[in-house]
Design brief:
alpha/beta, six-stranded parallel sheet, three-stranded antiparallel sheet
Length: 357
């Protein structure tokens, strides 16, 4: 039996990389406000900030916006009668509304919701504008992550995580097939949803123990494993099904299923899951609906024999295990199969947090 290891953004965050969409969007707003402070105006296809009276300028240096202060500053700018703070993008406005209140946002899901609203208007130019805005954010996200990756040095002790990756497949963790004994997996297959290379050093260590392969399923920053894929990936959403009846190809521009066809990555994943029985391990992936098409194919596949969550421990009383099970359940049409495959909490364990060596 093989092991499929899903690596998500939480893995990068555990290594100190500020790689979440929240980090990126907050950085974007900080740059926008600080440019306004320096040049008395800011303007791009997403956002505009300037004085309503063109003769006005800042007469003294403003305190730079930081991630701790930026949303309070935006709130104050919006209330200032002398300042024009205008969103050019409904997508960015919705993202701001989510992150300023909830401190969290799923940018890909917000994109799809805006695309649906735009589709209803049947204004094809507006649909193209939404696509352009997401492309704009994607380009800036890649630049942002590249700057984060350049600052990263993998000086962490890899022992605990490598032991988790390479641990035996235990017979008590699988009820869908009878195992005579606990056995090491025959192969490890790392399905990396991140654009960064944080996982690579771990794989080199795993290769010394078990044959291991890496798939940058969403591409990577350099483009060596495909250009970064960024968009929506839930073909089971009832609203998505309506796209196919509209005969408007612009609606599919940032749908992941079509982006996957541009590289061999998804094809190689399919070959792996078709080749042999496997156990899934999950590290730092939210399992949200923006990846439902792929995760449904993995989780409900006949060769998938169990799913093990390495949950994030917030403190002694709290962890994200239950929230993860809610998300994973959305990828199962057959809920009986979900209960057979998903390893319960008391047989699961927290993801080891990497320590600097």
């Amino acid at each position: 039996m093989n092991r499929l290891i899903i690596i998500g953004n939480g893995f990068d965050l555990a290594h100190g990389i500020k790689s979440s969409f929240n980090d990126f969007i907050t950085d974007y707003f900080c740059n926008a406000i600080n440019t306004f402070y320096q040049k008395n105006s800011f303007n791009d296809i997403m956002l505009e900030i300037n004085f309503k009276d063109t003769y006005r300028i800042f007469t003294q240096k403003q305190e730079p916006a930081t991630k701790e202060t930026v949303y309070k500053i935006i709130h104050n700018l919006n209330k200032n009668i002398n300042i024009n703070f205008k969103f050019h993008s409904l997508l960015l406005e919705n993202v701001y509304g989510q992150i300023s209140k909830l401190k969290w946002v799923d940018l890909e899901t917000e994109f799809f919701d805006v695309l649906i609203k735009t589709k209803i208007s049947r204004d094809n130019e507006s649909i193209k504008n939404v696509n352009s805005q997401l492309e704009f954010l994607k380009i800036h996200l890649v630049k942002y992550l590249y700057s984060q990756e350049k600052q990263f040095s993998n000086i962490f002790d890899k022992t605990q995580l490598v032991e988790c990756f390479c641990e035996k497949i235990y017979s008590h963790e699988i009820v869908t097939v009878a195992l005579d004994e606990d056995k090491a997996p025959e192969n490890l297959y790392f399905l990396n949803f991140n654009y960064t290379k944080t996982i690579e050093d771990y794989i080199e260590s795993c290769k010394n123990i078990i044959p291991s392969n890496l798939n940058y399923i969403h591409g990577n920053l350099s483009g060596l494993h495909g250009n970064p894929i960024f968009g929506f990936g839930d073909e089971f959403d009832k609203r998505y099904v309506e796209f196919e009846d509209d005969k408007n190809n612009d609606l599919f521009k940032h749908i992941k299923s079509f982006e996957y066809l541009k590289t061999k990555n998804y094809y190689l994943l399919t070959r792996f899951i078709e080749s042999n029985e496997f156990q899934v391990q999950i590290y730092g992936h939210s399992c949200g609906i923006s990846d439902r098409t792929m995760l449904n194919q993995i989780f409900e596949h006949i060769n998938c024999k169990s799913i093990k969550i390495f949950y994030y421990k917030i403190d002694e009383q709290r962890n994200d295990f239950t929230d993860k099970t809610y998300e994973i359940s959305r990828h199962f049409k057959d809920k009986t199969m979900l209960r057979k495959k998903l390893i319960p909490f008391d047989l699961s364990r927290e993801m080891p947090q990497p320590m600097k060596s």
